[in-house]
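Dig into this one:

. . .
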Amino acid sequence: MENLKKKTFFTIFIIISLFAVFFATFFNIQTYHREYTEILNNLTRMKNLTIQRHEFFDKEMNPINDGDLRNRKVMDYEIYTFILKDNNDIVDQISHSDNIISEEIITKAKNIISNNNTSKVKIGFLYLESYAYNLENNNSLTIVKISNIRNMLLMNLLISVLLISIGEIIIYFISKKITEWITKPVLESFNREKEFVANASHELKTPLAVMMASIDCLDVNKKNEKWINNLKSESDRMNNLITRLLDLSKTEYLKKENFSKNDISMIIEKKALTFESLAYEKNITIETNIAEKINIFCHKESIDELVSILIDNAISHGKEGSKIKINLMSDKSEIKLEVINKGDPIPPDECEKIFERFYRNDKSHNRKSGRYGLGLAIAKNIVKAHNGSIKAYSKDEYTTFEVKFKTNEH
């Protein structure tokens, strides 16, 4: 259920965030394109007027009629035109705004003329440039001061980034609310299922106990021995299943008030000794590497159950004559428990599925194994209740179950 909520949340969050980024990007691209086009149009307009004016000049470069160019004013832009002689000397300079031509602009014009030998239009990247120009050799130079445009574009970009950053916080809470709304029916159904399993298990426990007691009271003879043995076998199997279902139900509702500080090193050491006889039957040895006196704030019975499940699982799936390693270590941030056995590897695509209820990688569901696919689900619930993590992975012939707890959990 947690995985479903996480996937739903991240899907919604990413989709909404992408829309926000798209609109911010679209706005900035549109603004940039509009300003770029306007600058280019102004440069082209002034160039055409300069060419027309140039045609009215006499041989001494005395203007006969320059009213159109000199009187052309442009709003929102600082545009300057410099009229050139054949040797690229500046003979006239015009401001197309209310700004007076400064020494900075004149110096910039002279640098452009001296550094270019051919006609050239340069606008550049508006986020970095301060000037755009159009140089017509032996004719004119038009300069547009775009530092204010650059600052405006950078300000728009900064505002967009800030709005997206603030928007991400809003999107986070919106995504959370939508996730809760979407997953609410699933969560309710899941909780009803868990309640049903718990209630059904409790209700079945009593009549099953009566049946088992009645079976034990039956007289056994050659005629009914086979049927009575079948009844005993199936009732024992059903009793084990109900017990595991009740265990699963208990681990889903572990409460912090029942937690206390316990020596997990001692719990694991004792449990490993308990399983030595079972391991001996399969010619399996248990090797422990347990750091001493590691304390953890936990529910002692549940941790005991967790260790039992992992060791029992390792013995069941371990090869005869192999070795099981139990490692427990700790540092400042976490406590790590490893149970390693040699046996058939777990396929990578099943490493998460094995912790699901009733999941068994034995697709035939062989009843002789006496397993129901609940042990690892119970283990996961216990670890989750202690804010820890559990995972399984196989490398070569070895399978490792790794459990981590935070050392500062209280």
Q: What stands out?
A: The chain has two domains: 2-151, 257-406. Residues 2 and 187 are 10 Å apart (CA to CA). Confidence is low (pLDDT under 50) at residues 56-65, 363-368.
